[in-house]
Amino acid sequence: MKRVLKGTEPASFTDWKSSANDEWVPTYPVLQNPQKRELHAALLEEQGSLCCYCGREIEAATSHIEHFRPQEHFAALALDYENLFASCLRETRPGNPLHCGHRKSNWFEEALHISPMDEQCELRFRYLQNGGIQPADSEDLPAAKMIEVLALDIAYLNNRRRDTIRRLFDDEFIASVSNEDLERLVTVIRAAKASDQKPFDHIIARYAEQLLGR
Asked: Which terminal residue of the chain has fewer beta carbons within 10 Å of its beta carbon, N or C?
């Protein structure tokens, strides 16, 4: 998973919610443009146009507004900006494997969830050179559950992560890189603004941290 630092919701969204009166109550199903478009754009901007779950590149045409705590079970949070993210896959197609927000759908178990806002969320997963993903701690049941629920281990994502990892961490690099270089790499990625981050950068940082722990 990828950590998300939440910003401030767009003023148009705030104003729309504030227009509630005795005859009208704002709800997510009636949210329309331009407010919905501007909300989606704000989520993409604060995430650096990267999916909140897998970290792949997204844009308005290839993503959707994701309710981390699903509307079906948490109606009171349906318009809470802290509960809204941008997740990959705008449309689902028969035969294509679901992952991330659409795969999670209405699932939620408080004891097993890991939020993209969790400061430690990225550290709870480890990655293999072949792109596989595992809980960093084999006894971390929420991490295992999030991999399952979000389908973060499907072939498409494994292959994307494998290609990202191998572009940098080939055998020659691993044999020669110093701990200082790895620490510098982690620091640069972790300190980067969302707009400067690239797809799967959080995977690079985690893999470097794993090498430091050899």
From this structure: C
